[in-house]
Amino acid sequence: MLPIVEQLEAKRAAARLGGGQKRIDAQHSKGKLTARERIDVLCDEGSFEELDMYVEHNCVDFGMESQKIPGDGVVTGSGTINGRLVYVFSQDFTVFGGSLSERHAQKICKIMDMALKVGAPVIGLNDSGGARIQEGVASLGGYAEVFQRNVLASGVVPQLSLIMGPCAGGAVYSPAMTDFIFMVKDSSYMFVTGPDVVKTVTNEVVTQEELGGAVTHTTKSGVADVAFENDIEALWAARTLIDFLPLSNREEVPERPTADPFDRIEPSLDMLIPANANQPYDMHELIRKTVDEGDFFEMQPAHAGNIIIGFGRVEGRTVGIVANQPMVLAGCLDINSSKKAARFVRFCDAFEIPILTFVDVPGFLPGTAQELNGIIKHGAKLLYAYAEATVPKITVITRKAYGGAYDVMASKHLRGDLNYAWPTAEIAVMGAKGAVEIIFRGKTPEEIAERTAEYEARFANPFVAASKGFIDEVIAPHSTRKRIALGLRKLRGKQLENPWKKHDNIPL
Amino acid sequence: MFKKILIANRGEIACRVIRTAKKMGIATVAVYSDADARSPHVEMADEAVRIGPPAASESYLLADVIIAACKATGADAVHPGYGFLSERTSFAQALKDAGIAFIGPPVNAIAAMGDKIESKKLAKAAGVNVVPGFLGEIADTDEAVKIAGEIGYPVMMKASAGGGGKGMRLAYSEQDVREGFEATKREGLASFGDDRVFIESPRHIEIQVLGDQHGNIVYLNERECSIQRRHQKVVEEAPSPFVTPKMRKAMGEQAVALARAVGYYSAGTVELIVSGADKTGEGFYFLEMNTRLQVEHPVTECITGLDLVEQMIRVAAGEKLDFGQDDVKINGWSVENRVYAEDPYRGFLPSTGRLVRYNPPATSDGSVRVDDGVVEGGEVSMFYDPMIAKLITHGATREEAIDKQIAALDRFEIEGPGHNIDFLSALMQHPRFRSGEITTGFIAEEYPDGFHGAPADPELLRSIAAIGAFAAMAGADRARRISGQLGQRLDPPSGWQVKIGDALYDVMIRGDDVTVNGEAIELELEYTPGDRLIEATVNGADLDVRIAPARSGFKLTTRGASHVLRVLPAHVASHATHMIAKIPPDLSRFLLCPMPGLLVALHVEAGEKVEAGQPLAVIEAMKMENILRAEKAGVVKSLSAVAGESLAVDAVILEME
């Protein structure tokens, strides 16, 4: 080997050691991989090309001038996931605790700019103690530079964050603005202020895990999408997710071969809706039996379970799925489920991913807890998201579609392209009993019962809506996949544009 | 011959009877409760009549409603199946009065054999050996304790009009008798409308008899039904590995004699208790006679080549048997497994719910038979028997029939309710079962701590690892066929690491050459991502494996156990050593509801001290009361449910300190 190449190799080797073996061992003892090991798992073997390996910080205060480690606490570059280009930054906790310096931020910004230019997703692996305090405001400026790019990239390239260690203070706002957040149980947490500050200010005693652990954010707050047991599970799932997503808003959804026939008939779906209208059923079954190979990547599975969101494929091409879940709160819409689904619908629309909506919704959840916390504004988000979406939209009403929630759930009136209903569908202002009690106020219980039966016979079916053209066709449940697959084929050429505007004003 | 038969039953037996009727060119009428409106037997029959709400006491047990259905549809005969009204004298009599044929024995024979106390007296009088026990009704708990003491523990208490394991309880101590007697009585009443209870010491093997209305009676060999769990038969076979030709003849002739004594015709079964220790072939005793078609009749059909339902119909229509005793042969061996909706991994608790997936094994070569009455998407209802299907195999030898069971069970796909397929496979592989040295205590003796999956030998685990790696590679290969790639398509990794439990397997796949930990393994299989069944040949032997995706790998199910595989490419696996195994949260402080059901009673209050084994709560599900006991001594911290509440599986009932 030429001496010049030898020197290069030695320099690379030194840089790859990051904060040194001792700190690497400490990282491992916590069940965490190092920044470069994580990239090894995430990217195709040998595909990662590191940039800015020799970047060092420029801080000269507090003795920092004598402590320089090449790379400055973040590994950046590009690689492939199943052959498709992605840009990655991976914070290195072994180097200054992964803290963010001006140069560290510059490295992240550089690959984000590249990703935006060429149209490829950005995946951030977060494991950082926070701002490089020695750098003061320079570090804060660095954060803001990243935030600005998160915003510019939003809707242009998919952005995915994996929280694999601490992520506190201002640092949380970068992942918060990305499209999806994965967290690792027991080793990651996100909060604006940590337990110590919380104790000082509000006297509340709370653990890191309770305040901002993976379980907290994927069940209660809904800040993060999915929690994983360890680094490898999270990274492996990130690969799976990327396989569903287009590289940018300039690209079509990816396509991959499948052996699952588009016209697969599922006779068991004819019996999915229980004989008793008040009995729940698991909407997941319909989703799994509709998509290719039963493969459904669910987002936020543990938060606002009354609505299901996630990705699947039909004929090898990605679709976004939104479905009411009768198993949880009867599938009603409330604040959390509206917010959860609204952002997902907007993601799909931004990236030209067709949206499938399965509807079984009894209405909005009543109560002071909902009204006083602004269900009006939050419910409007989902309505707004569906109404502005111009991607192919196919809707299947399986059972209830009552009241305003009927309108919201990708109805014909919100430019639904194909609105199907199962024969079990009931499209009405409200349930028969409630409706009759209003129309025939003051009548005897016998009369009410009689009128209820009459109302049910009239409205507890999809044909009234179909007679008005609100439902395009009443379909047999067993042929749902076939109908959807054909519909998606036909809608590939769909062209629809909203009026020009600087941007919209969604009720935030 | 009849023109139209009404089947006064549901589920697999209704479908079974309809099949034969169709074959004979007879029209069929199904009856159904609201819970069964979408069941296959309704679909299969030419006509169907709704007979009431889900509870059997308001539908399938209503003789007058069923007779009205006969009249409405013009059915001229009724097949009662088993259970429900099949052994009700009043029903048979009412049909007779209405001029409708009952496809079963004469009324007086049902009456004579139906009362289990009376039948024993009759058998004794006819010179049949009768087992020791108490023949009579017991008034109350104190009398039950006294009698149980005289007989000696363990004793079995049984509702006198009960059957099929319902209303039967084994008691090992006085405490068990005290706790169980009232419940036994209640269940007897709830299910069958009779509250007399008696006690006897348990055991059995059975003889199938068949007679016509012209005095011809034959025995169709024996069935061995010793593999039982809580007196519910699980595995049946014909013939029995215990029974010698001489013994068969003696048992058969006694059974025929008894049948003759009561003027029996149609199909019937004489249940006998056989002492496994007694090698003389004379250690058998009469237990009871079932005056109906048995659940396990298919094993007899397999070895005799007869269609028992057809025979019953012909006999009821007045035809003569067209064969004699000498024509009854034994052709090979047949084994039946009962696939129940119960979870062997959770103490065999009953399970209900929608059959999200249901694919029984193929039956094309004729050696595998599936008798079922469900379809994918159907419901295992809490209202009726939890049996999903009967899997019957037929082979030249016992070993062959058993091996066919193992292969068929590997292909049996059920998703939704918990089921006992793994357990059945474990039984079929159990060396003691295969040796034929079985007793009614087999399950209790061999699985004293419950069931945790069949043991997998190292060879099987290596095969499973290789199959898992192959599936992962196929998945990776397909993933690399995605559109929008940067350069040339990548090849999938060829080196994989598979983790099963704590064991690691390094699998290399290069073309057709597969090695596991460096050792070559001959693997042939086809797998397309999304498949749920892999038919593999490993080192020349067939191995069918059900496969489901799991995080970072798969769950593979075969040979009576499920294995969760973490499958990673070799370059990733080297990092996996740093992952810390997570310890699952400690749930032992909580009393969880083991099955969906009604919380009938909560015996303790917050702050109460409890002893190990003390009853804490009673859950009623599938018409059975299940007593939940304290696993260890402690103090109740708080209650999370109230009596009368309907609870989901795993709902917290109470927390211990």
Automatic annotation (TrEMBL), chain A:
One annotated Gene Ontology cellular component of this protein = acetyl-CoA carboxylase complex
Q: Which GO terms describe its biological process?
A: carbon fixation
One of its Pfam families is Carboxyl_trans
Q: Which InterPro entries match?
A: AccD/PCCB, AcCoA_carboxyl_beta, ClpP/crotonase-like_dom_sf, COA_CT_C, COA_CT_N
Q: Which domain of life is it from?
A: Bacteria
Query: CoA carboxyltransferase C-terminal domain: from which residue to which, for each copy?
Result: 261-502
Keywords of the record: Ligase
Which Gene Ontology MF annotations are present?
A: acetyl-CoA carboxylase activity; propionyl-CoA carboxylase activity
Q: Which residues form the CoA carboxyltransferase N-terminal domain?
A: 1-257
Report the family membership: Belongs to the AccD/PCCB family.
Q: What is this protein called?
A: Propionyl-CoA carboxylase beta chain
- Species annotation: Sphingobium boeckii
Higher taxonomy: Bacteria, Pseudomonadati, Pseudomonadota, Alphaproteobacteria, Sphingomonadales
From TrEMBL, chain B:
Keywords from the UniProt entry: ATP-binding, Biotin, Ligase, Lipid degradation, Lipid metabolism, Magnesium, Manganese, Metal-binding, Nucleotide-binding, Transit peptide
Question: Lipoyl-binding domain: which residues?
Answer: 578-657
List the Gene3D superfamilies. Answer: 2.40.50.100, 3.30.700.30, 3.40.50.20, ATP-grasp fold, A domain, ATP-grasp fold, B domain
Gene Ontology molecular function: ATP binding; metal ion binding; propionyl-CoA carboxylase activity
**InterPro entries associated with the record:** ATP-grasp, ATP_grasp_subdomain_1, BC-like_N, Biotin_BS, Biotin_carboxylase_complex, Biotin_carboxylation_dom, Biotin_COase_C, Biotin_lipoyl
PROSITE patterns, sorted: ATP_GRASP (PS50975), BC (PS50979), BIOTIN (PS00188), BIOTINYL_LIPOYL (PS50968), CPSASE_1 (PS00866), CPSASE_2 (PS00867)
- SUPFAM superfamilies documented for this protein: Glutathione synthetase ATP-binding domain-like, PreATP-grasp domain, Rudiment single hybrid motif, Single hybrid motif
What processes in GO biological process is this protein linked to? lipid catabolic process
| Catalytic function, reaction form | butanoyl-CoA + hydrogencarbonate + ATP = (2S)-ethylmalonyl-CoA + ADP + phosphate + H(+); propanoyl-CoA + hydrogencarbonate + ATP = (S)-methylmalonyl-CoA + ADP + phosphate + H(+)
EC number(s) given by UniProt: 6.4.1.3
Q: Which residues form the Biotin carboxylation domain?
A: 1-448
Which residue range or ranges hold the ATP-grasp domain?
120-317
Q: Has UniProt tagged this entry with the keyword Aminoacyl-tRNA synthetase? A: no
Q: Which cofactor does it need?
A: biotin
Q: Name the pathway.
A: Metabolic intermediate metabolism; propanoyl-CoA degradation; succinyl-CoA from propanoyl-CoA: step 1/3
PANTHER family for this protein: CARBOXYLASE:PYRUVATE/ACETYL-COA/PROPIONYL-COA CARBOXYLASE (PTHR18866), METHYLCROTONOYL-COA CARBOXYLASE SUBUNIT ALPHA, MITOCHONDRIAL-RELATED (PTHR18866:SF33)
Full protein name: Propionyl-CoA carboxylase alpha chain, mitochondrial
Q: Which organism is it from?
A: Sphingobium boeckii
